[in-house]
Write a structure and sequence with these properties.
Strand content: under 5%
Structural class: mainly alpha
Distance between the termini: 25 Å
Largest sheet: none
Order of helices and strands: HHHHHHHHHHHHHHHH
Shape: globular
Radius of gyration: 22 Å
Length: 448
Protein backbone atom coordinates (compact mmCIF):
# COMPACT_ATOMS: atom_id res chain seq x y z
CA UNK A 1 0.00 0.00 0.00
CA UNK A 2 1.49 3.36 -1.04
CA UNK A 3 2.09 5.59 1.97
CA UNK A 4 1.00 9.24 1.84
CA UNK A 5 3.75 11.28 0.30
CA UNK A 6 5.68 8.12 -0.60
CA UNK A 7 7.35 7.40 -3.90
CA UNK A 8 5.00 7.78 -6.80
CA UNK A 9 6.58 5.82 -9.59
CA UNK A 10 4.87 2.82 -11.13
CA UNK A 11 7.98 0.74 -10.35
CA UNK A 12 7.12 1.03 -6.67
CA UNK A 13 3.71 -0.65 -7.01
CA UNK A 14 3.17 -3.39 -4.44
CA UNK A 15 3.09 -6.92 -5.92
CA UNK A 16 -0.45 -8.00 -6.68
CA UNK A 17 -0.02 -11.36 -4.95
CA UNK A 18 0.47 -9.73 -1.54
CA UNK A 19 -2.03 -6.89 -1.87
CA UNK A 20 -5.26 -8.52 -3.08
CA UNK A 21 -6.43 -9.50 0.44
CA UNK A 22 -4.84 -6.37 1.96
CA UNK A 23 -6.90 -4.17 -0.38
CA UNK A 24 -10.05 -6.29 -0.27
CA UNK A 25 -10.38 -6.40 3.54
CA UNK A 26 -10.76 -2.63 4.20
CA UNK A 27 -12.88 -2.32 1.04
CA UNK A 28 -15.26 -4.91 2.49
CA UNK A 29 -15.58 -2.91 5.72
CA UNK A 30 -16.52 0.20 3.73
CA UNK A 31 -19.04 -1.74 1.62
CA UNK A 32 -20.65 -3.31 4.69
CA UNK A 33 -20.76 -0.19 6.89
CA UNK A 34 -23.83 1.38 5.30
CA UNK A 35 -26.05 -1.77 5.23
CA UNK A 36 -25.15 -2.55 8.84
CA UNK A 37 -25.97 1.01 9.91
CA UNK A 38 -29.30 0.78 8.09
CA UNK A 39 -30.15 -2.37 10.05
CA UNK A 40 -29.58 -0.50 13.32
CA UNK A 41 -31.49 2.53 12.04
CA UNK A 42 -34.40 0.27 11.11
CA UNK A 43 -34.40 -1.32 14.57
CA UNK A 44 -34.41 2.09 16.27
CA UNK A 45 -37.19 3.49 14.08
CA UNK A 46 -39.16 0.24 14.31
CA UNK A 47 -39.89 1.00 17.96
CA UNK A 48 -41.83 4.10 16.87
CA UNK A 49 -44.47 1.98 15.13
CA UNK A 50 -45.40 0.69 11.69
CA UNK A 51 -46.08 4.13 10.18
CA UNK A 52 -42.58 5.39 10.95
CA UNK A 53 -41.05 2.10 9.80
CA UNK A 54 -42.98 2.30 6.55
CA UNK A 55 -41.90 5.91 6.08
CA UNK A 56 -38.27 4.94 6.56
CA UNK A 57 -38.65 2.09 4.07
CA UNK A 58 -40.11 4.38 1.38
CA UNK A 59 -37.82 7.39 1.94
CA UNK A 60 -34.72 5.31 2.60
CA UNK A 61 -35.41 3.20 -0.47
CA UNK A 62 -35.47 6.29 -2.68
CA UNK A 63 -32.21 7.60 -1.25
CA UNK A 64 -30.52 4.20 -1.49
CA UNK A 65 -31.58 3.91 -5.13
CA UNK A 66 -29.95 7.26 -5.97
CA UNK A 67 -26.77 6.32 -4.10
CA UNK A 68 -26.56 3.02 -6.00
CA UNK A 69 -26.96 4.78 -9.34
CA UNK A 70 -24.23 7.32 -8.53
CA UNK A 71 -21.61 4.92 -7.20
CA UNK A 72 -19.67 5.61 -10.40
CA UNK A 73 -18.18 8.50 -8.40
CA UNK A 74 -16.26 5.84 -6.48
CA UNK A 75 -15.72 3.13 -9.10
CA UNK A 76 -14.96 5.38 -12.05
CA UNK A 77 -12.63 7.59 -10.02
CA UNK A 78 -10.74 4.55 -8.72
CA UNK A 79 -9.96 3.38 -12.24
CA UNK A 80 -8.83 6.79 -13.47
CA UNK A 81 -6.78 7.62 -10.36
CA UNK A 82 -5.11 4.18 -10.35
CA UNK A 83 -3.89 4.58 -13.93
CA UNK A 84 -2.45 8.02 -13.14
CA UNK A 85 -0.78 6.70 -9.97
CA UNK A 86 0.62 3.71 -11.85
CA UNK A 87 2.22 6.06 -14.36
CA UNK A 88 4.05 7.76 -11.48
CA UNK A 89 1.72 10.76 -11.51
CA UNK A 90 0.34 10.91 -7.97
CA UNK A 91 -0.54 14.56 -8.51
CA UNK A 92 -2.67 13.50 -11.48
CA UNK A 93 -4.37 10.85 -9.34
CA UNK A 94 -5.15 13.47 -6.70
CA UNK A 95 -6.43 15.78 -9.43
CA UNK A 96 -8.94 13.08 -10.37
CA UNK A 97 -10.13 13.23 -6.77
CA UNK A 98 -10.53 17.01 -7.00
CA UNK A 99 -12.63 16.77 -10.15
CA UNK A 100 -14.73 13.91 -8.74
CA UNK A 101 -15.38 15.99 -5.61
CA UNK A 102 -16.60 18.95 -7.68
CA UNK A 103 -18.81 16.58 -9.65
CA UNK A 104 -20.16 15.09 -6.42
CA UNK A 105 -21.03 18.52 -5.05
CA UNK A 106 -22.78 19.55 -8.27
CA UNK A 107 -24.79 16.34 -8.63
CA UNK A 108 -25.55 16.19 -4.92
CA UNK A 109 -26.78 19.78 -4.89
CA UNK A 110 -29.03 19.25 -7.90
CA UNK A 111 -30.50 16.06 -6.43
CA UNK A 112 -31.05 17.68 -3.03
CA UNK A 113 -33.06 20.45 -4.69
CA UNK A 114 -34.98 17.92 -6.79
CA UNK A 115 -35.96 15.93 -3.70
CA UNK A 116 -37.14 19.09 -1.95
CA UNK A 117 -39.42 19.78 -4.91
CA UNK A 118 -40.55 16.22 -5.58
CA UNK A 119 -40.46 14.53 -2.16
CA UNK A 120 -44.26 14.61 -1.83
CA UNK A 121 -45.19 13.14 -5.23
CA UNK A 122 -42.41 10.52 -5.10
CA UNK A 123 -43.24 9.22 -1.64
CA UNK A 124 -46.99 9.14 -2.40
CA UNK A 125 -46.26 7.18 -5.57
CA UNK A 126 -44.19 4.56 -3.74
CA UNK A 127 -46.49 4.42 -0.72
CA UNK A 128 -49.51 3.75 -2.92
CA UNK A 129 -51.17 7.11 -2.35
CA UNK A 130 -51.57 9.81 0.28
CA UNK A 131 -51.66 8.72 3.90
CA UNK A 132 -49.65 8.55 7.12
CA UNK A 133 -46.83 6.45 5.61
CA UNK A 134 -46.39 8.81 2.65
CA UNK A 135 -46.37 11.82 4.99
CA UNK A 136 -43.76 10.21 7.24
CA UNK A 137 -41.61 9.27 4.25
CA UNK A 138 -41.82 12.80 2.83
CA UNK A 139 -40.81 14.30 6.17
CA UNK A 140 -37.81 11.96 6.47
CA UNK A 141 -36.73 12.42 2.85
CA UNK A 142 -36.76 16.22 2.96
CA UNK A 143 -34.25 16.18 5.81
CA UNK A 144 -32.14 13.20 4.73
CA UNK A 145 -31.75 14.39 1.12
CA UNK A 146 -29.88 17.50 2.28
CA UNK A 147 -26.98 15.16 2.99
CA UNK A 148 -26.71 13.96 -0.61
CA UNK A 149 -23.78 16.28 -1.48
CA UNK A 150 -21.96 14.94 1.59
CA UNK A 151 -22.70 11.33 0.69
CA UNK A 152 -21.43 11.81 -2.88
CA UNK A 153 -18.28 13.63 -1.71
CA UNK A 154 -17.49 10.55 0.41
CA UNK A 155 -17.97 8.32 -2.65
CA UNK A 156 -15.54 10.47 -4.64
CA UNK A 157 -13.05 10.40 -1.75
CA UNK A 158 -13.25 6.63 -1.61
CA UNK A 159 -12.54 6.54 -5.33
CA UNK A 160 -9.28 8.48 -5.51
CA UNK A 161 -7.87 7.01 -2.29
CA UNK A 162 -8.50 3.50 -3.59
CA UNK A 163 -6.77 4.54 -6.79
CA UNK A 164 -3.54 5.35 -4.93
CA UNK A 165 -3.83 2.07 -2.98
CA UNK A 166 -4.85 3.67 0.31
CA UNK A 167 -7.90 1.86 1.62
CA UNK A 168 -7.35 2.07 5.35
CA UNK A 169 -8.03 5.81 5.48
CA UNK A 170 -11.40 5.51 3.66
CA UNK A 171 -12.30 2.68 6.02
CA UNK A 172 -11.54 4.87 9.04
CA UNK A 173 -13.44 7.84 7.61
CA UNK A 174 -16.55 5.81 6.78
CA UNK A 175 -16.52 4.06 10.15
CA UNK A 176 -16.17 7.43 11.94
CA UNK A 177 -19.27 8.77 10.22
CA UNK A 178 -21.22 5.55 10.81
CA UNK A 179 -20.27 5.53 14.50
CA UNK A 180 -21.49 9.11 14.94
CA UNK A 181 -24.78 8.20 13.25
CA UNK A 182 -25.13 5.06 15.38
CA UNK A 183 -24.73 7.05 18.60
CA UNK A 184 -26.96 9.92 17.54
CA UNK A 185 -29.79 7.90 16.02
CA UNK A 186 -31.36 6.51 19.23
CA UNK A 187 -30.57 9.74 21.11
CA UNK A 188 -32.31 11.96 18.57
CA UNK A 189 -35.17 9.57 17.81
CA UNK A 190 -36.13 8.61 21.38
CA UNK A 191 -34.29 10.75 23.96
CA UNK A 192 -34.64 14.09 22.15
CA UNK A 193 -38.11 13.10 20.96
CA UNK A 194 -37.54 13.98 17.30
CA UNK A 195 -39.00 10.68 16.13
CA UNK A 196 -38.44 9.74 12.51
CA UNK A 197 -36.86 13.13 11.75
CA UNK A 198 -34.15 12.29 14.29
CA UNK A 199 -33.14 9.33 12.13
CA UNK A 200 -32.70 11.62 9.12
CA UNK A 201 -30.72 14.19 11.13
CA UNK A 202 -28.40 11.45 12.43
CA UNK A 203 -27.85 10.31 8.85
CA UNK A 204 -26.87 13.79 7.67
CA UNK A 205 -24.54 14.48 10.60
CA UNK A 206 -22.73 11.17 10.10
CA UNK A 207 -22.36 11.86 6.38
CA UNK A 208 -20.99 15.29 7.25
CA UNK A 209 -18.31 13.74 9.46
CA UNK A 210 -17.19 11.32 6.74
CA UNK A 211 -17.26 13.97 4.00
CA UNK A 212 -15.24 16.44 6.08
CA UNK A 213 -12.56 13.79 6.70
CA UNK A 214 -12.33 13.01 2.98
CA UNK A 215 -12.09 16.72 2.10
CA UNK A 216 -9.37 17.21 4.72
CA UNK A 217 -7.38 14.31 3.25
CA UNK A 218 -7.75 15.83 -0.22
CA UNK A 219 -6.65 19.26 1.02
CA UNK A 220 -3.51 17.79 2.58
CA UNK A 221 -2.64 16.02 -0.69
CA UNK A 222 -3.15 19.25 -2.60
CA UNK A 223 -0.76 21.05 -0.26
CA UNK A 224 1.90 18.40 -1.00
CA UNK A 225 1.41 18.18 -4.76
CA UNK A 226 0.44 21.79 -5.66
CA UNK A 227 -2.64 20.51 -7.50
CA UNK A 228 -5.17 23.37 -7.85
CA UNK A 229 -8.67 23.20 -6.37
CA UNK A 230 -10.34 24.64 -9.45
CA UNK A 231 -12.66 22.47 -11.57
CA UNK A 232 -11.45 21.49 -15.05
CA UNK A 233 -14.30 21.12 -17.58
CA UNK A 234 -12.44 18.58 -19.76
CA UNK A 235 -11.77 16.29 -16.78
CA UNK A 236 -15.36 16.65 -15.56
CA UNK A 237 -16.66 15.67 -19.01
CA UNK A 238 -14.36 12.63 -19.07
CA UNK A 239 -15.66 11.51 -15.69
CA UNK A 240 -19.24 12.04 -16.80
CA UNK A 241 -18.69 9.87 -19.90
CA UNK A 242 -17.34 7.09 -17.69
CA UNK A 243 -20.17 7.65 -15.25
CA UNK A 244 -22.79 7.49 -18.00
CA UNK A 245 -21.92 3.87 -18.78
CA UNK A 246 -21.80 2.83 -15.13
CA UNK A 247 -25.04 4.72 -14.44
CA UNK A 248 -26.89 2.95 -17.25
CA UNK A 249 -25.52 -0.38 -16.08
CA UNK A 250 -26.71 0.24 -12.50
CA UNK A 251 -30.14 1.47 -13.65
CA UNK A 252 -30.80 -1.64 -15.74
CA UNK A 253 -29.71 -3.85 -12.85
CA UNK A 254 -32.15 -2.12 -10.51
CA UNK A 255 -34.99 -2.45 -13.01
CA UNK A 256 -34.25 -6.14 -13.61
CA UNK A 257 -34.41 -6.92 -9.89
CA UNK A 258 -37.61 -4.86 -9.56
CA UNK A 259 -39.22 -6.84 -12.41
CA UNK A 260 -38.24 -10.12 -10.77
CA UNK A 261 -39.69 -8.98 -7.43
CA UNK A 262 -42.96 -7.99 -9.15
CA UNK A 263 -43.26 -11.46 -10.70
CA UNK A 264 -42.59 -13.17 -7.36
CA UNK A 265 -45.13 -10.94 -5.60
CA UNK A 266 -47.82 -12.30 -7.92
CA UNK A 267 -46.85 -15.88 -7.06
CA UNK A 268 -47.89 -15.62 -3.42
CA UNK A 269 -46.96 -14.26 -0.03
CA UNK A 270 -44.81 -17.26 0.92
CA UNK A 271 -42.82 -17.00 -2.31
CA UNK A 272 -42.30 -13.28 -1.79
CA UNK A 273 -41.10 -13.80 1.77
CA UNK A 274 -38.61 -16.48 0.72
CA UNK A 275 -37.43 -14.33 -2.19
CA UNK A 276 -36.82 -11.38 0.13
CA UNK A 277 -34.75 -13.52 2.52
CA UNK A 278 -32.67 -15.09 -0.26
CA UNK A 279 -32.23 -11.82 -2.17
CA UNK A 280 -31.02 -9.89 0.87
CA UNK A 281 -28.50 -12.66 1.58
CA UNK A 282 -27.45 -12.61 -2.08
CA UNK A 283 -26.94 -8.84 -1.99
CA UNK A 284 -24.98 -9.02 1.27
CA UNK A 285 -22.73 -11.78 -0.11
CA UNK A 286 -22.27 -9.71 -3.27
CA UNK A 287 -20.66 -7.06 -1.04
CA UNK A 288 -18.18 -9.65 0.22
CA UNK A 289 -17.26 -10.75 -3.29
CA UNK A 290 -17.25 -7.19 -4.64
CA UNK A 291 -14.37 -6.36 -2.31
CA UNK A 292 -12.14 -8.37 -4.67
CA UNK A 293 -13.43 -6.29 -7.57
CA UNK A 294 -12.25 -3.13 -5.81
CA UNK A 295 -8.82 -4.69 -5.25
CA UNK A 296 -8.71 -5.66 -8.93
CA UNK A 297 -9.64 -2.14 -10.03
CA UNK A 298 -6.82 -0.61 -8.03
CA UNK A 299 -4.13 -3.09 -9.04
CA UNK A 300 -5.07 -3.43 -12.72
CA UNK A 301 -5.37 0.34 -13.14
CA UNK A 302 -1.96 0.84 -11.49
CA UNK A 303 -0.31 -1.83 -13.67
CA UNK A 304 -1.74 -0.44 -16.90
CA UNK A 305 -0.88 3.12 -15.94
CA UNK A 306 2.71 1.94 -15.45
CA UNK A 307 2.67 0.28 -18.90
CA UNK A 308 2.81 -3.26 -17.49
CA UNK A 309 0.00 -5.20 -19.22
CA UNK A 310 1.50 -8.55 -18.18
CA UNK A 311 1.14 -7.55 -14.53
CA UNK A 312 -2.46 -6.52 -15.19
CA UNK A 313 -3.21 -9.92 -16.71
CA UNK A 314 -1.46 -11.71 -13.83
CA UNK A 315 -3.48 -9.66 -11.33
CA UNK A 316 -6.63 -10.69 -13.15
CA UNK A 317 -5.72 -14.37 -12.81
CA UNK A 318 -4.99 -13.99 -9.08
CA UNK A 319 -8.12 -12.07 -8.25
CA UNK A 320 -10.21 -14.66 -10.11
CA UNK A 321 -8.75 -17.37 -7.88
CA UNK A 322 -9.56 -15.33 -4.78
CA UNK A 323 -13.12 -14.73 -5.97
CA UNK A 324 -13.65 -18.36 -6.94
CA UNK A 325 -12.20 -19.69 -3.70
CA UNK A 326 -14.31 -17.36 -1.57
CA UNK A 327 -17.40 -18.20 -3.63
CA UNK A 328 -16.86 -21.93 -3.09
CA UNK A 329 -16.38 -21.39 0.65
CA UNK A 330 -19.57 -19.32 0.87
CA UNK A 331 -21.50 -21.96 -1.09
CA UNK A 332 -20.36 -24.71 1.29
CA UNK A 333 -21.35 -22.63 4.32
CA UNK A 334 -24.77 -21.84 2.88
CA UNK A 335 -25.48 -25.50 2.17
CA UNK A 336 -24.24 -26.55 5.60
CA UNK A 337 -26.43 -23.92 7.30
CA UNK A 338 -29.47 -24.60 5.14
CA UNK A 339 -31.45 -26.25 7.98
CA UNK A 340 -30.70 -23.34 10.36
CA UNK A 341 -30.22 -20.02 8.56
CA UNK A 342 -33.68 -19.50 6.98
CA UNK A 343 -35.30 -20.12 10.38
CA UNK A 344 -33.49 -17.07 11.77
CA UNK A 345 -35.62 -14.89 9.47
CA UNK A 346 -39.03 -16.55 9.78
CA UNK A 347 -40.91 -19.39 11.47
CA UNK A 348 -43.63 -19.56 8.81
CA UNK A 349 -43.65 -23.14 7.42
CA UNK A 350 -44.79 -22.00 3.97
CA UNK A 351 -42.00 -19.42 3.68
CA UNK A 352 -39.43 -21.95 4.93
CA UNK A 353 -40.59 -24.46 2.32
CA UNK A 354 -40.12 -21.89 -0.46
CA UNK A 355 -36.74 -20.89 1.00
CA UNK A 356 -35.69 -24.52 0.63
CA UNK A 357 -36.41 -24.27 -3.10
CA UNK A 358 -34.40 -21.09 -3.66
CA UNK A 359 -31.53 -22.02 -1.32
CA UNK A 360 -29.84 -24.27 -3.88
CA UNK A 361 -29.79 -21.45 -6.42
CA UNK A 362 -28.42 -19.02 -3.82
CA UNK A 363 -25.61 -21.36 -2.76
CA UNK A 364 -24.51 -22.83 -6.09
CA UNK A 365 -24.44 -19.40 -7.74
CA UNK A 366 -21.75 -18.07 -5.36
CA UNK A 367 -18.63 -19.50 -7.11
CA UNK A 368 -19.87 -18.12 -10.44
CA UNK A 369 -20.65 -14.75 -8.87
CA UNK A 370 -17.20 -14.64 -7.25
CA UNK A 371 -15.52 -14.97 -10.65
CA UNK A 372 -17.90 -12.53 -12.37
CA UNK A 373 -17.40 -9.78 -9.79
CA UNK A 374 -13.62 -10.27 -9.92
CA UNK A 375 -13.64 -9.94 -13.71
CA UNK A 376 -15.87 -6.88 -13.47
CA UNK A 377 -13.20 -5.28 -11.29
CA UNK A 378 -10.46 -6.18 -13.79
CA UNK A 379 -12.29 -4.51 -16.66
CA UNK A 380 -13.29 -1.49 -14.56
CA UNK A 381 -9.67 -1.01 -13.59
CA UNK A 382 -8.81 -1.08 -17.27
CA UNK A 383 -11.44 1.57 -18.01
CA UNK A 384 -13.35 -0.91 -20.19
CA UNK A 385 -16.70 0.18 -18.76
CA UNK A 386 -18.47 0.55 -22.11
CA UNK A 387 -18.04 -3.19 -22.68
CA UNK A 388 -19.21 -3.94 -19.12
CA UNK A 389 -22.27 -1.75 -19.68
CA UNK A 390 -23.20 -3.61 -22.86
CA UNK A 391 -22.66 -7.04 -21.32
CA UNK A 392 -24.66 -6.29 -18.17
CA UNK A 393 -27.55 -4.68 -20.04
CA UNK A 394 -27.58 -7.51 -22.59
CA UNK A 395 -27.51 -10.25 -19.94
CA UNK A 396 -30.34 -8.55 -18.04
CA UNK A 397 -32.59 -7.85 -21.03
CA UNK A 398 -31.91 -11.13 -22.86
CA UNK A 399 -31.67 -13.48 -19.88
CA UNK A 400 -32.79 -12.32 -16.46
CA UNK A 401 -35.87 -10.24 -17.29
CA UNK A 402 -37.39 -12.48 -20.05
CA UNK A 403 -37.00 -15.64 -17.97
CA UNK A 404 -38.46 -13.92 -14.91
CA UNK A 405 -41.48 -12.74 -16.90
CA UNK A 406 -41.85 -16.14 -18.54
CA UNK A 407 -41.79 -17.86 -15.15
CA UNK A 408 -44.67 -15.64 -14.06
CA UNK A 409 -46.65 -16.43 -17.20
CA UNK A 410 -46.02 -20.19 -16.92
CA UNK A 411 -46.35 -20.22 -13.12
CA UNK A 412 -42.80 -21.50 -12.50
CA UNK A 413 -42.62 -19.56 -9.25
CA UNK A 414 -39.38 -18.89 -7.44
CA UNK A 415 -37.47 -21.57 -9.33
CA UNK A 416 -38.11 -19.78 -12.62
CA UNK A 417 -37.10 -16.34 -11.32
CA UNK A 418 -33.90 -17.61 -9.74
CA UNK A 419 -33.09 -19.59 -12.87
CA UNK A 420 -33.26 -16.23 -14.63
CA UNK A 421 -30.86 -14.70 -12.10
CA UNK A 422 -28.49 -17.65 -12.56
CA UNK A 423 -28.64 -17.23 -16.34
CA UNK A 424 -27.85 -13.54 -15.85
CA UNK A 425 -24.66 -14.46 -13.96
CA UNK A 426 -23.68 -17.17 -16.47
CA UNK A 427 -24.09 -14.88 -19.48
CA UNK A 428 -21.95 -12.21 -17.82
CA UNK A 429 -19.35 -14.81 -16.86
CA UNK A 430 -18.99 -16.00 -20.44
CA UNK A 431 -18.84 -12.49 -21.90
CA UNK A 432 -16.35 -10.98 -19.46
CA UNK A 433 -14.28 -14.18 -19.42
CA UNK A 434 -13.87 -14.04 -23.21
CA UNK A 435 -12.97 -10.35 -22.99
CA UNK A 436 -10.27 -10.83 -20.35
CA UNK A 437 -8.75 -13.77 -22.26
CA UNK A 438 -8.23 -11.41 -25.20
CA UNK A 439 -6.10 -8.30 -25.35
CA UNK A 440 -8.49 -5.54 -26.46
CA UNK A 441 -9.03 -4.37 -22.87
CA UNK A 442 -5.26 -3.98 -22.40
CA UNK A 443 -4.74 -1.96 -25.56
CA UNK A 444 -7.73 0.29 -25.02
CA UNK A 445 -6.65 1.13 -21.50
CA UNK A 446 -3.04 1.88 -22.38
CA UNK A 447 -4.05 4.15 -25.24
CA UNK A 448 -6.60 5.91 -23.03
Amino acid sequence: MTPPGGRQGGDEAVPARSTIPALAAPALVVLAAEPLYLLVDTAVVGNLGTVSLGGLAVGGGLLAYVAALLNFLAYGTTARAARRAGAGDRAGAVSEGVQATWLALALGGLLAVAFQLLAGPLTRLLAGGAGPVAEAAEQWLRVASTGLPLLLVALAGNGWLRGVQELRRPMAYVLAGSLVSLVLCPLLVHVAGLGLVGSAVANVIGQGVSASLFVRALARELARTDVPWRPRPAALRAQLVLGRDLLLRAAVLQLAFAAAAAVVARSGTAQLGAHQIALQLWLFLALVLDAYAIAAQTLVGTALGAGRPDDARATGARVIRWGLGTGVLVAVLLLALRPVLPALFTDDPAVLAQAGVVWWFLALMQPLAGVVFALDGVLMGAGDVAYLRTVTVGAALLGFVPLSLLSGWLDWGLAGVWTGLTLFIVLRLVAVGVRVRGSAWLGESVSA
